[in-house]
Amino acid sequence: MARVKRGVTSHAKHKKVFKAAKGFYGRRKNTIRAAKAAVDRSMQYATRDRRAKKRTMRALWIQRLNAAVREFGLTYSRFIDGLAKAGVEVDRKVLSELAISEPTAFAAIVEKAKAALPAAA
């Protein structure tokens, strides 16, 4: 049986790892053993943080909405309660974007939510 040399395969594998490790600090970018470990860990972080990003973005939208509705004399929780009672089904991402880019439209939504709430207690 003929001898099989595996240099091409190994080189291709290493090249893929080094490409993913580009920009890493020290030996993590140019030594295959350190680079492979660093790339594996970086992929774990990437997977974890794709999920965490969704949570942090929602928290950001809520903070923006809370700041925006306080100008109208409401709190975030009362605003969301008013929206639910008024039957307005707009998500927090869109509401946040409206508060920034379309203040008049957002004001109309806030007034609708205010009207749906019971008189101030």
From TrEMBL:
GO function terms (MF aspect): rRNA binding; structural constituent of ribosome
Keyword field: Ribonucleoprotein, Ribosomal protein, RNA-binding, rRNA-binding
Domain of life of the organism encoding this protein: Bacteria
GO BP terms, alphabetized: ribosomal large subunit assembly; translation
CDD domains registered for this protein in UniProt: Ribosomal_L20 (cd07026)
GO-annotated cellular components: ribonucleoprotein complex; ribosome
Family matches, as InterPro entries: Ribosomal_bL20, RIBOSOMAL_L20_CS, Ribosomal_protein_bL20_C
UniProt keyword annotation of rRNA-binding present: yes
Functional summary from the UniProt entry: Binds directly to 23S ribosomal RNA and is necessary for the in vitro assembly process of the 50S ribosomal subunit. It is not involved in the protein synthesizing functions of that subunit.
Family: Belongs to the bacterial ribosomal protein bL20 family.
Name under which the protein is recorded: Large ribosomal subunit protein bL20
Lineage of the organism: Bacteria, Pseudomonadati, Pseudomonadota, Alphaproteobacteria, Hyphomicrobiales
Gene from which the chain derives: rplT
